[in-house]
């Protein structure tokens, strides 16, 4: 019974002991990766013997992932924290890779022994691929490069199988598999004009991408940012970002990771004015039951669900929206925003066409400077120009869940939303 209690206590504590005799008296910081964020999880001073112990709080347990050790002024070292281990990190005679050793850490032993092996092999494969592009298939060196590449790829396939077998128990195995996935596939998207190849990569990533491992890996931003290459105009996959994110969200078990991915996807939709994707994502999030007490962009995203075509447009403070006679083009903008200024100029140029089609223009500004707004708005030929000088906190911006500008809504004579747009060129009724 005593041994059982000791074992349970040890498993629960999950401590990291630092044995760093050369760093006596210095402050140590531990930083964990969480998506695009970094969270300082511990700080403490190394004692006169070079020792210090970190134990996660009961109230804030720490999941397995990459953490960074900082010792001011110039030491930075990445390693794996596991919630199944109680390791000791020892370094003596200088804080270098050769002098750092772990005791009781299969995670760090594994990644230390396997990381360099994978990087060397994948580097050689990339070099051989580039070399093959310099020769024609009938030239002497081409088959030599091809043969060596095939051998290395076969070795990597065996390595990948081993990682798969280890992934159930080792975060470090999942991390290496993720790193290979990103290096082998995401990096190939940049400037790739082969639609079929991009589609194969897209499908493979949707099947294989492990969001939980990615979230704590330090590669979250580079991976997601790299994948955006798939969805930019004029890609044939433009407009499928929302549905692809939904597919990833559906297989993401961790609630923390789910919310981080949903929030970042909402930010991306806003940044690029991907309204089709925003609608798909908001519909899913609203019905998923996994977003409780939403804040920030997720709150806005759920509000967007209530503003889909066919739904009644919210009221607009300052005017009576539905007069039964004209359609309304509602334009949210900000003076000084390049995209907004461009669309406002196009709007001014197209105003005679809009007027002839009995479309009333209503602009709502997020400006907070009265002089700046008035100087800009005086050139608008339409009658209804609104600004409460409260920025995005204004009532109309809140009612219409505006995350970014420019944003436009077309509203019919009955006060029903017909569509949401980022620019005039998307609006069929005025072409």
| Percentage beta strand | 15-25%
What is the topology, as strand order, of the major beta sheet?
11-10-9-12-13
Give the biggest beta sheet: 5 strands, mixed
What name does CATH use for the topology of the domain at 327-430?
A: Glutaredoxin
Report mean pLDDT, rounded to a whole number. 90
Q: Spell the H/E element sequence.
A: HEEEEEEEEHHHHHHHHHHEHEHEHEE
Helical content stands at 40-55%
Annotated CATH architecture of the domain at 327-430: 3-Layer(aba) Sandwich
A few lines on this structure:
This protein has helices at residues 2-13, 106-132, 141-166, 171-184, 195-208, 211-215, 220-227, 241-250, 255-272, 275-288, 296-304, 338-356, 370-377, 395-399, and strands spanning 16-19, 27-34, 37-45, 51-54, 65-71, 75-81, 88-91, 100-103, 327-333, 359-365, 384-386, 407-411, 417-421. The chain has 431 residues and is an alpha+beta fold.
């Amino acid at each position: 019974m005593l041994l059982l209690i000791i074992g349970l206590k040890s498993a629960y504590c999950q401590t990291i002991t630092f044995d760093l005799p050369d760093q006596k008296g210095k402050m140590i910081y531990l930083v964990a990766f969480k998506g695009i964020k970094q969270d300082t999880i511990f700080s403490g001073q190394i004692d006169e013997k070079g020792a210090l112990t970190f134990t996660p709080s009961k109230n804030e347990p720490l999941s397995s992932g990459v953490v960074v050790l900082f010792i001011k002024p110039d030491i930075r070292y990445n390693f794996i924290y596991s919630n199944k281990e109680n390791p000791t990190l020892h370094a003596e005679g200088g804080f270098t890779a050769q002098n750092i050793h772990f005791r009781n850490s299969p995670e760090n032993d594994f990644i230390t022994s396997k990381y360099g092996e994978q990087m060397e092999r994948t580097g050689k494969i990339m070099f051989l691929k580039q070399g093959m592009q310099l020769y024609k298939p009938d030239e002497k060196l081409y088959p030599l490069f091809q043969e060596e590449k095939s051998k290395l790829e076969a070795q990597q396939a065996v390595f990948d199988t081993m990682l798969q077998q280890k992934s159930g128990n080792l975060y470090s195995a999942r991390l290496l598999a993720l790193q290979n996935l990103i290096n082998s596939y995401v990096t190939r998207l940049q400037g790739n004009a082969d639609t079929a190849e991009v589609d194969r990569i897209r499908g493979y990533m949707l099947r294989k991408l492990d969001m939980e491992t990615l979230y704590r890996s330090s590669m979250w931003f580079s991976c997601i940012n790299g994948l955006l290459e798939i969805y930019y105009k004029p890609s044939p996959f433009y407009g499928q970002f929302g549905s692809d994110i939904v597919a990833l969200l559906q297989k993401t078990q961790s609630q923390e990771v789910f919310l981080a991915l949903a929030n970042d996807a909402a930010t991306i939709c806003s940044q690029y004015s991907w309204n089709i994707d925003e609608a798909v994502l908001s519909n899913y999030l609203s019905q998923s039951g996994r977003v409780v007490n939403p804040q920030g962009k997720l709150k806005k995203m759920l509000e967007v669900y209530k503003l889909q075509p066919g739904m009644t447009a919210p009221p607009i403070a300052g005017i009576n929206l539905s007069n039964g006679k004209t359609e309304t083009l509602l334009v949210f903008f900000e003076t000084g925003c390049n995209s907004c200024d461009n669309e406002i100029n196009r709007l001014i140029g197209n105003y005679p066409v809009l007027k002839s089609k009995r479309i009333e223009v209503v602009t709502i500004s997020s400006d907070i400077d009265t002089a700046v707004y008035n100087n800009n708005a005086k050139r608008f030929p339409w009658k209804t120009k609104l600004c409460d000088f409260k920025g995005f906190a204004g009532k109309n911006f809140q009612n219409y869940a505006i995350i970014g500008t420019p944003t436009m809504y077309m509203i019919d004579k009955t006060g029903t939303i017909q569509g949401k747009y980022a620019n005039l060129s998307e609006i069929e009724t005025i072409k």
